[in-house]
Amino acid sequence: MRQRFGRDKVLDAALGIVMRDGYRFVTARRVANAAGCSAQPLYSRFGGMEGLMGALYERALEWVAAYNREHISDAETAFASNGLAHIRIAQEEPKLFEFLYLSRYMKAKSLDELLSRTAQPGVEEEISARYDLSPMAAHNLYIDMIVYTHGLASMLAVGASFSDKELKTRTDAAFESFLEHAGPRCVGKKKA
User: CA angle, corner 45, sides to 44 and 46, nearest 5?
Assistant: First the structure.
């Protein structure tokens, strides 16, 4: 149990460095100093810096999942709250956003893989039920909105400062367009 505590302490220290200074500043020495240990546990527990960075990436995803759970009611639906949370993370924690979504550590090989790692539980089902979409159409709509929202969030993470009104107008318009082209409805309605 003691080694698990040490692992968590090291990962939390490294995550603090990412959020404060950026992932490029995560070094064995800085993490060890922040965790109050020598650099040796980084190598014995993580197999070196690449192992540490991989584990740190997973810890950062856990942080985002917790953030999303905390903010699940910030909008009318969990779906909208999820998109809003992504934008807020880009604004409030741009260095963490960069590590998660703009660095080589992301390693997603497909949009489906990205969605499976970042999707919030129940959101696809909510989309399907609320908008009368087949599960596949709901899945595709979720991906489309993630890609669109991520574009806006990426610009915010590097210094853009769009107004909340403009962000809402643009995301609402994108959603309406994606919904119109989402695919088969559950009840068998055919599109013209």
Answer: 100
- Same domain for 117 and 55: no
The tally of domains found in the chain comes to: 2
Structural domain contains residue 65: no
Cβ burial of 186 (10 Å; 0-12, 13-18, 19+) is middle
pLDDT at 42: 85
Specify whether the CB–CB gap between 99 and 105 falls below 8 A: yes
Range of the domain at 111: 71-192
Please check whether residues 56 and 75 belong to one and the same domain. Answer: no
Q: Given this model, what pLDDT does residue 2 score?
A: 45
pLDDT on residue 115: 84
What pLDDT does 170 receive? Answer: 95
Q: How many CB atoms lie within 10 A of CB 105?
A: 16
Report how far residue 168's alpha carbon sits from residue 145's, in angstroms, rounded to the nearest whole number: 13
Residues 116 and 56 in one domain: no
What the block records as the tokens of 13 is 């220290």
Q: Smallest Cα–Cα separation from 39: which of 27, 29, 52, 49? A: 29
Which residues, 6+ apart, have CB-to-CB distance to 30 below 8 Å?
17
Q: Is residue 150 part of a domain?
A: yes
Question: 133-178, pLDDT tens digit by residue?
Answer: 999 999 999 999 999 999 999 999 999 999 999 999 999 999 999 9
- The verdict on residue 174 lying in a domain is yes
